[in-house]
Amino acid sequence: MLGEKLLIKMWKTLTEKGIGSLLKPWHKARMSKVELEAKKNEIIVLADAERQAQDIKNGLIKLDNYGQLNLTNIDELHSHIESTKKIENIKKEINVSKAILYAEDELKYDDQEPPQENINEDWIYKWKNNASETSTEELQQIWGRLLAGELKSPGKYSLRTMEFLKNISQEEALLIEKVAKFNLDGCISKNEKEILEKNNVSFSDLLFLEELGILYGIATGLNINYSSNIKESYQKLISSNDKAFLLTHQDSTKIATLNMYGISKLGIEVLSLGHFNHNEEYLISIAKQFIAQGFEVKLGDWKPVNDTQGIFSNEIQINIEN
Length: 322
Description:
This protein folds into 2 domains: about 5-165, no CATH class; about 170-320, no CATH class. Helices cover about 45% and strands about 15% of the residues. The chain has helices spanning about 5-15, 25, 35-55, 75-80, 85-105, 120-130, 135-150, 160-165, 170-180, 195-200, 205-210, 265-270, 280-290, and strands spanning about 185-190, 215, 220-225, 235-240, 245-250, 255-265, 295-305, 310-320. A hairpin with a 5-residue loop joins strand 7 and strand 8. The longest helix is centred in the first third of the chain and has 23 residues, at about 35-55.
């Protein structure tokens, strides 16, 4: 399995910290040929546990004097939970387990070698506490991606980012998602106001995201300079989610410039947790700005390999007429 090494490291990390006890009986099976059957079994148990937890909350099922359920079909679940006196502990354990499953989904096709460094102990415990409070599927996916990303690159996600995600509302998350498709290497073009508004991103939305700490420089904009990556001639790759520009020029000292809004460190960490598509009209408009500055511009597919490298393919030449 492609991501086997990363998955083994994840489970070693979680087991050492006593995290993911509901899934522990199955984690070895997921490394074998019966992965799909094991996945089905664990999802069935978690779903059954959620239904019964809700029944307890609604008063349909009673706990006995020892905090145990008077049901035989949940005995297996209780054997994996240290404390069964309060049903909230069961619900929290389920939430953590679901986030771990999403982390597995992120890692299982990733052939990256596991890093030598381990996740900081304080970080992993804060992750567990925050993931345990999340019951919506969308946010559980985010917490799963957070764990997967931190495992691959310890220190990538700050505690501040975790605190932000803990308190984010659904409306704020949707706004960030709308803006994310305009991410151009950590910035958003200030000159594409009409395209942003056409996609329901207003100037007041940008100001609000600045208040949240996701963006900066909204009032004045920032002049961002792009210098060459090589000495022989000008060559610069600029990515935007699943697409990227390749700028070229004979003069290696030439500088490309755009007026931009900045995406903060917090914003970059938050956006890296999602999988966002590009906006074609936005990219073509930016390409024409580069062409007007004298550069040849190609637009192609971009597949990140890690935080600093990726694969650029299927490129096409962009002209003013495009």
